Amino acid sequence: MPRSVNAVASRARRKKVLKATKGYFGRGKNVWTVAKNKYEKGLQYAYRDRKAKKREFRKLWIQRINAGARLHGLSYSNLMGLLKKAEIELNRKVLADLAMNHPEAFKAVVEKVK
Question: In terms of residue numbers, what domain contains 18?
């Protein structure tokens, strides 16, 4: 009896990977072994960077809030302390948006806590 190999599933799996690596550079897009390795590495990067993205945005928001606060004579840490003391619960994302796009509203928040 001949050995049974599930060629249909194997081909489908390879097609799925090669479709996902479309647009990769060099042999990474069309050579199965190279494409498979690049695909797996890409999934690792995607997993890692979903976590890193959150850190990056938090850093950006803090920088923007700090810049806005310094225009009004406060540092970031002083402003956050005053906000906590005044029981104003605005998260960093919202504060950064106010500092960037609505400076008059940000100024109102700073004046309220001073």
Answer: 8-113
